[in-house]
Write a structure and sequence with these properties.
binds 3-isopropylmalic acid, 371 residues, homodimer, 40% helix, alpha/beta, two-stranded antiparallel ribbon, Rossmann fold, 3 domains, 10-stranded mixed sheet
């Protein structure tokens, strides 16, 4: 019996998570897989009521679980950054989920960019470092153009003492991106292992080493060492070139390793190539600890509660969860259920269908129970 | 008589710049426009021979010109970052070309992503700040996990004293992104003026203010003030969402302001939407000083010297140059020449045509002379 934390969150989160959990419950009836799900009330609504984001209590409760199944957070009444930094990014950091797995698969022909050649890119986004550390400062007259900032992680403490001398009044804002050799090494190691397990002989590393030379120069060097260690190939792509290549030759990519910020952009672009955000599942993976699975879409408050949300991304996230928890066959059944709904056009309006969220869910559950 | 610096650079740079200058020479014969072009030998080849990138002598010679017409730099024999930082980014910084104008126009039907609705996005990329300052450091055992770095610009001096305390051996690499209130203010001002001049009532600002909260929070605030000042609308888009929106609804965007790094990515993506890098012209603009015009593509060493390079991007850059120098009608003739070549399929293989670079050039020159 697996114990999952279910965090529906805000907006369409609860609707799509419901479909995912219904599907997992259906699996329990026809397979040896079994789970219980404990609901966690974490998100914008609670924040507005109590001021709480991800509390210490949440963290210790979540730690008792085998995995987290997450909907979405986001509330238009709350300033950008608060929920993201205080809940989602904090979760990724606290549980050290350093791999963000985001497959981009052609579910042809349901894509805006029709291509005859099927593609199946597996993005591995580094999920704990880069420009996502929340490490920034403002320098202005009223603080004497000085700032002291720092970041504390399990294995280090880093401090910045910053001072500006302007020739006239101004204000400066800075934001620091950081990579550690350890962080990049474990990321690279995961990437080559992953590609190997998929029977590939190569990893593509995306960066902008011609401009952000320090961080991405070190990253290239570490990836090259790992490539040699594994006896595998390594391709470098600049992020700008990659955004183009994804459009004209997505079928030429397999396992793609990408640092945090660029991963955010490219995997959304990728989602669009496979039919929109409603098609993208995502796993925030700590290979030795607690992982979290979520659709890559947000809370979409504009369509919340209207039955318009496409639950496929959440179901694909559940597939990844099952795979991660040692139930790959059950995962494949969810994949087949998605395939079935697409083939029979039992889908939501974003994919050209006429069904409501829960109707798609019902079609999937029926499909699973009939296996 | 205008005086232009011509910097052909490396790879396909010379081939495409030749087409652009031939077209401008043709314009001289049929209009009041007149120019002389002085060739500058700057690029990878000279660097390999002399170790020189952009020298003080280059800078003072370039300063005497009315504008710079630039090809491309880049050489596979040189480590990523050296030519970029030492020539291209240095030029943008030294001449304070703080606006990078990159139109993304549908030249329907020559696009991989066919859309019935024409689009015409005008990206204004901030071109001197953000994560493009080359401000980074390494902290490791052999430097005692300490680094002192700094940046000096005309109006300020900024220093960083950084110290890490690791609990075990490691290595850290950091890279700093910086925005100044002055820098963002002049950028915002340009954007609203630009949109207004195009008869639009709105600017779209792209950022990632939900994660990089300091820099892009300040940027939002400044853009909002400018929007109020101009009595115009301001839309915010997260960069990940923008990469998707550009694919499904490019026609809904007009003037789009984007910080440096995201601008790099989105304008390449945009180039792809209009038929590839061979279609993208780019202006590095100092509204009160020396501007530089270049195709957005690089030196493409793999096809250099083979007559395969699409010269359209370079011709569109020349159009922007003429516009900037007070010859908008002559600029429009170059635009018409491009249109003519596309309509008659007198184009290079990347667009499905059969012509060589110089043949496309000849077709354009003939078209211009027959006006
Ligand atoms: C909500 C946001 C902080 C998040 C991110 O940028 O990582 C999201 O876009 C994602 O990709 O999961
Ligand atoms: C060559 C590189 C430094 C440059 C950039 O990143 O700005 C290029 O990609 C561009 O967009 O002009």
């Amino acid at each position: 019996m697996k114990h999952f934390a279910i965090v529906p969150g805000d907006g369409i989160g609860p609707e799509v998570v419901k479909v995912g959990t219904d599907c997992m419950e259906a699996l329990c009836e026809i397979s040896s897989f079994d789970f219980d799900g404990e609901l966690f009330n974490i998100g914008g609504q609670r924040y507005l009521e109590t001021g709480e984001l991800l509390t210490d209590q949440d963290i210790s409760d979540l730690k008792k679980k085998d995995a987290i199944y997450f909907g979405a957070i986001g509330d238009p009444r709350i300033k950008p950054g608060i929920l993201e930094g205080g809940i989602l990014l904090k979760m990724r950091a606290v549980f050290d989920q350093y791999i963000n797995l985001r497959p981009v698969t052609s579910w042809f022909p349901y894509v805006p960019l029709k291509r005859e050649v099927p593609f199946d890119i597996h993005f591995l986004r580094e999920n704990t470092e880069d420009f996502y550390m929340g490490l920034g400062a403002k320098l202005r007259k009223d603080n004497g153009y000085r700032a002291e900032i720092g970041v504390k992680r399990e294995s280090y403490d880093m401090g910045f003492d910053i001072k500006a001398e302007p020739s006239e009044d101004d204000e400066y804002s800075i934001e620091v991106g950081l990579l550690s050799r350890k962080g990049v090494t474990r990321f690279a190691d995961y990437a080559f292992k992953y590609a190997q397990a998929r029977g590939e002989d190569k990893v593509t590393l995306v960066d902008k080493a011609n401009v952000i030379t320090n961080n991405y120069g070190m990253q290239r060097e570490i990836f090259q060492q790992k490539a040699d260690e594994y006896g595998m190939k390594l391709d470098f792509m600049f992020v700008d070139a990659m955004s183009m290549a994804m459009i004209v030759r997505p079928e030429t990519f397999g396992t793609v390793a990408v640092p945090n910020l660029f991963g955010d952009i490219l995997t959304d672009l990728g989602a669009q190539l496979q039919g929109g955000l409603g098609m993208g599942g995502s796993g925030n993976i700590n290979p030795h600890g607690l992982s979290m699975f979520e659709p890559i879409h947000g809370s979409a408050p504009d369509i919340a509660g209207q039955g318009k949300a496409n639950p496929i991304a959440a179901v694909l996230a559940a597939e990844m969860l099952l795979d991660n928890q040692g139930f790959p066959e059950e995962g494949r059944m969810l994949h087949a259920a998605v395939r079935h709904c697409l083939d029979t056009m039992q889908v939501t309006p974003d994919l050209g269908g006429k069904l409501r969220t829960e109707e798609v869910g019902k079609a999937m559950v029926d499909f699973i129970l009939n296996q």
